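Narrative of activities, Objective 1.

The group set out to show that a structural description can be obtained from nothing but a protein's sequence at a throughput compatible with the screening campaign. Below is one input-output pair from the validation batch, recorded exactly as produced.
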Amino acid sequence: MSNVDEFLAMHADTPLSHAGYDAQARREYYLRTRKLKGRAGGSVDPKGRATTASSPSRVNRTAVLKAAPKKPASQTMEARVAQLKGRLDRLKSELAILVAAAKVRSGVDPKETKKKDDSKEPEKKSSADKKKDAERAKEYREKNQKPSEEVEQLQKQIEEVTEKIEKAREALKAALAKHASSKPRFNVSPNSADGNESR
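Output recorded for this entry:
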């Protein structure tokens, strides 16, 4: 005998054994008594909050759909659009009332305000028009936005200092060129302590 057969023979009377299990009988019992239950999903109550399956306000969605007469999708969408338009109109009227009240509180005459023409679209400019506008803007800036006298004085000082720096650079270059052309006076050897040994 194999080890498996010996093990099963030794433990046949233990509660873990499957000796009395009949798979065919178990399947028949399952088929007779099964009650399949779908997933218990949440639903939405009239206020827009999600509810759980255990919530008392849960609505049986399939029963509602079967009981409600079916409308074409376009009719339901049109009804929804009409509802939203009505709500928007109410909100606009309430906003106008609130704005008028705020203007009265702030001391602004509500009749003086101008209404903008929202239907008018802005003009699209061509590149030539844009260039002309840019040139006009540049001319305006140059004419009307002159720098103050302080800024002009500082700019003059900066120019003077840069000229002095250029002159100093030229003088330094000339001195270096003159120095490079002349021979050194002292011979420096690596053995000397002070580095000044004569020839």
